Amino acid sequence: MQINQSRIGIFKEVFPIKNKTDLITLKGIIIPVDWDTKGNAVAIAISTQGEEEYLIWNDTIGKRLFNFIQDSVKVRGEIMDAAGVKLIKINDIQKCALGIPDEINNSIKSSNQQAKSSKRHN
Hints:
Blueprint lengths: L4 H4 L8 E2 L4 E13 L5 E8 L4 E4 L3 H5 L7 E11 L2 E13 L2 E2 H20 L1
Parallel strand pairs: 4-6
Antiparallel strand pairs: 1-5, 2-3, 2-5, 3-4, 5-6, 6-7
């Protein structure tokens, strides 16, 4: 995905939105896609398992995802097309471990711990 900071204005301007869709759930890794002159990420995207990239709308919720760069996440939001760039305006975020949502990952860990515990008692 080719991002130009001056073109996107770091989301300070409202894009003309076309082809608004319903809420969709995406799983993928948060990646930086544009940097300032000091090398700090100023725009991020979610790269899905199908290798599609969706630029993340930089609102209050979207800004929280800067803390998840290089992490696997599951997000739910509105997909939009802005000047030919696929955008997602996020409503919900769920961090994942190895591509597995934390709630499932925690359940797996709990099951493994219970299995180990029962083996010790046998």
